[in-house]
Design goal:
globular, mainly alpha, 300 residues
Length: 300
C-alpha cells in the first residue's frame, strides 16, 4: 500500500481535538443547510392534510403533486418565467460588460485619477439616497411600468467592480501589456484578445452574482411595474401566494381545512419552483466560482 503524501500529518492530541471539532462544526453546518431543503421538498410533494397537521419533516407522507398543479395552472406562471429569463439574461450580460469596462481601467496604474474614482465607487457602498429618491428618479425619467426600470438600477455594483479590479491587478501583469504594445496591440485589442480569455473565472463569478440576484429580485418590479404581463416570476409567485390565486370556489366545497391544507402545500411548491433553476445552473459555474472568490486570499 502506497502512503498518501498529501495527507495531513497529525502529531499531537491538541491537533486531533482541533480537527475533530472542525469536522463536527462542518457536519452541523451541512445539516443546517440540508434539513430545511429536505423539509421543503418533502412538504411540497406530501398529502396536503399531512402537511397542515405538521406530520411531515424529512420524508414525504402521502405523495401528492397538488401544490405544483395549482402553481402551474395559473396562466401568469409561464409569462413570469419568460420575463425573469429576459431580465436575468439582459441584466447579467450588460452588468458583466459594464463591470469589466469599469474594473479593468481602474486596475491600470497609468489611469489618471483612479484613486478618486475608487473612492467615489466605495462611497456608494456606505451611503445611498434610499428608495424614495430612487423612485422619484425613475419616475422623472418616465420609466415607470417599463422593463428598463427593473434593469438599469442594478447594472453597476461597486462591490463587484472592486472584486473584478482586484482580479485584474493580481492576474494581468504589467509586462504582458508592455509586450503587447511592442507588437502594436492597442488597449481595446489587449482587453478583448488577451485579458478576457484569461479572466473566465471572474466573468463566471460576476455572471453568477448578477444572475442569481436578478433571478431572485422582485422588489424593484413591485415598485416600478404596473402591468402584470411584465411581472417577473418572483413577483408572480408572491402574488399567487399572498392573494391565494386559486379556484377558491371549487375548494370551498371541500371544506375550510382542505383550503388551508392546499394553501400550505402551495407555499412549499412556490419556493421550489423559484429555486430549482438557480440550483441547476450553479454546478456548471462552481469551479469558476470557487476560483474567483479566492481573490484577495493569502497566497503561499
Amino acid at each position: 500500500m502506497k502512503k498518501n503524501k498529501n495527507k495531513i500529518k497529525i502529531s499531537s492530541a491538541g491537533e486531533r481535538l482541533f480537527y475533530a471539532g472542525v469536522n463536527v462544526l462542518m457536519l452541523i453546518s451541512i445539516l443546517l443547510i440540508i434539513l430545511p431543503i429536505l423539509n421543503v421538498v418533502s412538504s411540497s410533494i406530501s398529502d396536503p392534510m399531512s402537511v397542515l397537521q405538521g406530520e411531515v419533516f424529512l420524508l414525504p407522507k402521502g405523495f401528492s403533486l397538488e401544490g405544483y398543479k395549482l402553481v402551474f395552472e395559473d396562466s401568469r406562471i409561464m409569462s413570469g418565467f419568460a420575463n425573469t429569463i429576459f431580465y436575468t439574461f439582459v441584466t447579467t450580460v450588460l452588468a458583466v460588460a459594464i463591470t469589466v469596462l469599469a474594473a479593468y481601467p481602474l486596475s491600470r496604474k497609468d489611469l489618471v485619477g483612479r484613486n478618486i474614482f475608487m473612492f467615489l465607487f466605495t462611497l456608494t457602498m456606505l451611503f445611498s439616497g434610499g428608495i424614495i429618491p430612487l423612485y422619484l428618479l425613475i419616475r422623472s425619467l418616465k420609466l415607470i411600468d417599463s422593463r428598463l426600470a427593473v434593469i438599469l438600477p442594478v447594472l453597476i455594483n461597486a462591490y463587484n467592480i472592486i472584486v473584478a479590479r482586484s482580479f485584474f491587478q493580481s492576474t494581468i501583469p504589467d509586462e504582458l501589456l508592455e509586450a503587447a504594445k511592442i507588437d502594436g496591440c492597442g488597449n481595446t485589442r489587449f482587453l478583448i484578445s488577451i485579458v478576457l480569455p484569461v479572466s473566465k473565472a471572474i466573468l463566471a463569478v460576476l455572471a453568477l452574482y448578477f444572475g442569481v440576484a436578478m433571478w431572485n429580485s422582485w422588489f424593484s418590479a413591485y415598485l416600478y411595474l404596473n402591468s402584470t404581463s411584465k411581472f417577473p416570476l418572483q413577483l408572480v409567485l408572491k402574488e399567487i401566494l399572498l392573494a391565494n390565486s386559486m379556484d377558491t370556489g371549487a375548494m370551498a366545497s371541500e371544506g375550510g381545512a382542505r383550503v388551508d391544507a392546499l394553501s400550505e402545500v402551495l407555499k412549499y411548491a412556490v419556493i421550489l419552483v423559484s429555486c430549482i433553476p438557480a440550483w441547476l445552473v450553479y454546478p456548471f459555474a462552481q469551479k469558476y466560482f470557487i476560483k474567483g472568490v479566492m481573490i484577495g486570499s493569502i497566497k503561499g
